[in-house]
């Protein structure tokens, strides 16, 4: 969306719900990465790695960290996990959990198609995806377009210790690719929690916070996320630190 300022209300509401869930000192680290066309791969991934290293330094124990991101931000989180799994001693950097809202799993694919209700446009997405990749050959690189990775062992090594949570709308353009990735992760043996919201569009937890009519509807996605995180990262034993790049 261009800036973390857009997400400020979302972050503040999430912090409130995390405190109510029992986390005594929750923190959200929001990465302001460079957008296309100002920069292309690998700039954004390098910025994500630097941000995660900073959070690891603060948190000390990566099992206390929950990665989070929506849309392109979630893409960068998947790329981060795949990259870290190839580093020396990746277990020492593995986060406790990852919550991914409407991830853009594969940047350019025929499965990304306009839907009657979603606000995203497939042609624009493919344009932005190619701009980010730079070299067309990069679109086949899992670190650029994580959905092209079909290596089950690589995903097992990349998985957070507590697994993944995917949240997306049943009517969004990324739906087919998200479902394919979920199926692959499950076949690989990764722990995966899924929240496919009926009749909803891209990044519905964020959209609902701004557009829904009632407070319960506005915070439904955040409450669902908080509940899932609490099931994996026990607030009685750790304090949670969130990493949430914007889109």
How would you characterize the overall build of this protein?
This protein is an alpha/beta fold and 247 residues long. It has 9 helices and 6 strands; from the N terminus they run H-E-H-E-H-E-H-H-E-H-E-H-H-H-E. It is globular and about 45 Å long. The mean pLDDT is 94.
Keywords:
alpha/beta; six-stranded parallel sheet; 12% strand; 247 residues; globular; 9 helices
Give the overall average pLDDT: 94
Taken in chain order, the helices and strands follow as HEHEHEHHEHEHHHE
Q: In order across it, which strands form the biggest sheet?
A: 1-6-2-3-4-5
Which band does the percent of strand residues land in? 5-15%
Distance between the termini: 5 Å
How would you sum up the global shape? globular
Largest sheet: 6 strands, parallel
Radius of gyration: 17 Å
Specify the oligomeric state: single chain
User: Which structural class is indicated by helix and strand composition?
Assistant: alpha/beta
What percent of residues adopt helix (DSSP H or I)?
A: 40-55%
Q: Report the uncertain regions.
A: none
- Report the count of strand segments: 6
Helix count, per DSSP? 9
């Amino acid at each position: 969306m261009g800036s973390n300022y857009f997400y400020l209300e979302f972050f503040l509401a999430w912090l409130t719900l995390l405190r109510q869930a029992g986390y005594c000192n929750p923190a959200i680290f929001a990465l302001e990465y460079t957008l296309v066309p100002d920069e292309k791969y690998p700039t954004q991934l390098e910025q994500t790695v630097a941000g995660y290293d900073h959070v690891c330094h603060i948190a000390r124990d990566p099992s206390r960290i929950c990665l989070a991101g929506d849309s392109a931000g979630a893409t960068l989180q998947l790329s981060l996990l795949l990259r870290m799994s190839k580093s020396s001693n990746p277990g020492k950097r593995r986060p406790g959990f990852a919550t991914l809202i409407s991830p853009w799993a594969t940047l350019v694919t025929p499965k990304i198609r306009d839907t009657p209700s979603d606000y995203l446009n497939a042609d624009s997405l493919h344009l932005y995806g190619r701009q980010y990749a730079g070299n067309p050959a990069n679109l086949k690189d899992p670190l650029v377009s994580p959905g092209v990775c079909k290596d089950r062992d690589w995903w097992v090594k990349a998985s957070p210790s507590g697994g993944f949570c995917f949240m997306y709308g049943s009517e969004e353009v990324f739906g087919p690719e998200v479902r394919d990735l979920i199926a692959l992760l499950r076949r690989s043996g990764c722990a995966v929690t899924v929240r496919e919201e009926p009749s909803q569009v891209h990044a519905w937890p964020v959209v609902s916070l701004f557009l829904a009519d009632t407070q319960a509807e506005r915070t439904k996605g955040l409450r669902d996320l908080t509940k899932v995180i609490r099931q994996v990262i026990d607030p009685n034993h750790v304090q949670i630190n969130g990493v949430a790049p914007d889109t």
